[in-house]
Amino acid sequence: MLFMTLVTLKHAGTWDILAASFDEKAATFSNRITQFIRVLHPYLIRKNIDEQGVKWTMHQLAVAGHQFETYKSALYAVDVTFQQTTAPAVSFGEKKTYFSKKHGLYGHKVEVSVAPNGLAINATDCAVGSTSDFEMFKANLGFHSHQLEKQPNDYNWDDWSGLGVVLLVWWEVWNLQMK
What does the domain layout of the chain look like in residue ranges? Predict the structure, then answer.
């Protein structure tokens, strides 16, 4: 099953072509691969993402020399990524929730937090394409609040580190949005 899944992910062809490679019907093949990925997904998230968030603290990043060049006190960077999909075959009311005006396409969004060493330390569940980036950030506020708490060996880090007025303005905008 693992081999079939890896071949499917690598070649990314249509289900018909991939299923023919393994002498199976497309519907059966797609269901088997999808179910296998659903079973494997929690383990992969836990092993490859969640453990990295615990392992890489500010102190560990500094010792390893993996800090952001411009903002040494930043633990991670956050971005919302968009993955295009085909338009779902459902009613227009349901279909339009997958449409992103920003990208002009149908798809899903995921918020990913990446440490300066290039490893993802958090990835949210996917949301429909019409969800705003700010709403995704607000939905993941628990993770960000926990990560922003200083650890005992982090008290000697300068929180401002060149951000100055930019951070104050951002904080004011954030407070206005939250009201």
Answer: 1-46, 56-155
